[in-house]
Amino acid sequence: MKICKLMMALFLFLVLIAFASRYSLAQENPCLMCHVSFKQPAKHVHAVLNMGCETCHAKVEGSEHPKQKKSIKLTQDMPALCYGCHKESKFKGETVHSPVASGMCTGCHDAHQSNFNHILKSASPDLCYMCHKKSNFTRKYVHMAIPAVGCGTCHAPHVSSNPALLPRPVNDLCLSCHAAKAKLPHVVALPGDKRHPIMGVKDPSTIKMINVPDPKRPERQIEVPDPDVPGKEMTCVSCHDPHSSDFRGILVQERICIKCHKF
Ligand code: HEC
Ligand code: HEC
Ligand code: HEC
Ligand code: HEC
Ligand code: HEC
Ligand code: HEC
Ligand code: HEC
Ligand code: HEC
Ligand code: HEC
């Protein structure tokens, strides 16, 4: 019994030492003498912070910090600083998010620590509303996917091989949640059990029309699609706004059919 208690005490002692040595590491950091906010770690701490502030900051030679302005600089410019440890190739791709392309990593991340997952400055969707107009996502009819899962299910934060930073092509993405209701070809039932085409056709509203001389009667002009602007494939977002809209069914306009047809 006594031995058991002794072992327990020894164990607790060792644990204490382990903690104390980590803690004193922070205490010895001369920067923390004044930058006291770093003494209270947030929920998520950038792992590199334990390696010391000088991993990323350096004193400017011949100047005194903090007496002089610009007495501390980053060891490398952004985003090269981050790419020193995070593979640059992961941030290159077909579609690159504009703030990533311009090296504004700290537009979304706190370089040191934060209370949000992944040292983010805020949680999605608020993170995204720092730069994207919230009113586009909060119109009368809101796509319930946004309050349910935020923006991250449909958009990669850095890069993607699909347009609009989507994780996969639009129709596949939508059907990943709506397969049951919107079996292809889709909901818009037509007379005679036919279904409205969604795939394999171009959305006419995205095709640019130009005037050219009629080959049969060259004195006359006719309207034809511009071969240099081929238009987009029909997808779910030809009719539905993926975020929110002022029209029932999150449709992009009232009387949706006349967006493309002159019935
Ligand atoms: C004696 C107190 C003190 C110590 C020690 C100190 N700082 Fe500072 N630091 C300050 C103050 C005060 C400011 C704000 C100065 C200002 O606003 O001009 C500051 C500002 C900064 C800034 C922002 C300044 C800028 O130019 O953008 C950085 C980065 C910084 N400190 C890093 C460090 C690092 C890294 C260390 C350790 C090597 C350190 N500091 C040590 C007091 C200190
Ligand atoms: C991973 C690299 C990295 C490490 C490690 C790091 N910093 Fe920074 N720090 C930055 C970057 C990048 C900025 C500029 C942030 C911006 O542009 O918004 C910055 C900005 C600052 C600022 C200016 C105010 C602010 O918070 O934006 C202070 C003060 C600061 N750092 C202090 C420290 C101290 C003290 C340590 C060590 C405990 C430290 N930093 C460790 C990268 C780092
Ligand atoms: C000296 C190396 C180093 C530098 C420089 C560095 N990081 Fe890190 N970073 C790390 C390490 C190590 C991890 C932890 C990796 C892991 O958990 O897999 C990490 C993790 C992260 C994470 C994930 C955090 C989490 O909680 O999962 C983000 C985001 C991040 N870094 C952003 C940045 C940004 C932005 C910069 C530039 C300002 C930067 N890093 C610079 C080493 C570095
Ligand atoms: C538009 C906001 C935004 C910008 C700008 C941004 N990030 Fe991120 N980053 C995120 C989000 C959101 C996550 C979390 C992804 C998740 O939860 O799966 C993340 C995750 C990370 C991670 C951890 C997971 C991973 O993918 O390895 C690292 C490291 C990281 N970012 C580094 C960077 C660097 C370096 C830059 C600048 C080149 C940068 N980020 C710019 C939003 C951003
Ligand atoms: C620091 C500012 C900033 C933040 C934060 C930010 N974005 Fe962006 N984003 C931009 C800019 C700038 C563009 C390019 C201009 C535009 O389309 O409005 C852009 C473009 C986009 C695009 C279109 C990309 C394309 O190539 O078509 C998507 C999708 C996007 N952002 C999603 C998000 C999501 C999701 C978040 C939150 C995780 C987010 N953004 C956070 C600045 C930001
Ligand atoms: C259900 C999936 C889905 C969700 C959730 C989602 N988006 Fe999108 N988003 C899309 C699709 C699909 C497009 C492409 C639209 C197109 O091609 O016309 C897009 C386009 C965009 C664009 C570029 C075009 C534009 O409308 O400006 C931005 C910016 C954007 N989204 C931001 C966000 C933000 C911020 C959130 C969270 C508040 C979010 N998205 C949530 C599917 C989604
Ligand atoms: C992460 C899952 C998810 C994804 C991906 C998703 N949705 Fe949704 N969607 C929902 C949820 C949840 C609802 C609300 C419940 C319902 O009606 O099934 C909803 C509802 C809808 C509605 C009915 C809205 C109304 O007000 O009547 C439409 C239309 C819709 N989504 C279209 C789309 C389109 C288009 C895409 C692809 C850009 C998409 N959804 C992708 C989850 C998702
Ligand atoms: C040609 C236009 C058009 C296209 C393309 C389209 N939809 Fe719809 N969708 C509609 C209309 C019209 C409604 C009925 C809206 C209302 O009045 O509420 C609807 C309703 C819906 C609903 C809600 C009705 C229900 O059954 O719960 C969902 C979910 C939906 N669409 C998903 C999709 C998905 C996923 C795609 C892509 C595969 C898609 N839609 C493509 C026109 C379209
Ligand atoms: C975004 C553009 C767009 C919208 C909106 C749209 N359509 Fe279409 N529609 C098309 C295209 C493209 C075709 C295929 C034309 C072709 O095959 O040349 C088509 C074909 C049709 C056909 C012929 C189908 C067949 O199999 O022959 C009917 C009928 C039709 N649409 C009805 C509607 C109705 C009803 C609505 C409103 C609910 C609607 N459309 C909304 C683009 C659209």
Provide an overview of this structure.
The protein is an alpha+beta fold and 263 residues long. The protein has a domain at 44-121. 20% of the residues lie in helices and 12% in strands. The protein is built from 6 helices and 12 strands. The protein has helices spanning 2-28, 80-83, 98-101, 126-129, 145-149, 170-178; strands at residues 44-45, 57-59, 72-74, 95-96, 113-114, 141-142, 159-160, 189-190, 194-195, 209-213, 221-225, 244-245. The strands form 6 sheets. The protein has a two-stranded antiparallel ribbon. A hairpin with a 3-residue loop joins strand 8 and strand 9. It is elongated. The N and C termini lie far apart (92 Å). Residues 13-26 have low confidence and may be disordered. Residues 171, 174-175, 178, 181-182, 186-188, 196, 198, 234, 236, 238-240, 248-249, 256 line the site of one heme C. One heme C (HEC) is lined by residues 95, 97-99, 104, 107-108, 124, 127-128, 130-132, 151, 155, 157, 163-165.
Strand order of the largest sheet: 1-5
Low-confidence stretches: 13-26
- Give the ordered list of helices and strands: HEEEHEHEHEHEHEEEEE
User: What is the structural class?
Assistant: alpha+beta
**In one word, what is the shape?**
elongated
C-alpha end-to-end distance: 92 Å
Report the sheet-strand fraction: 5-15%
Query: What is the overall pLDDT average?
Result: 87
- Ligand names: heme C
Number of helical elements: 6
* Proportion in helices: 10-25%
Number of strands: 12
- State the major sheet: 2 strands, antiparallel
What is Rg? Answer: 29 Å
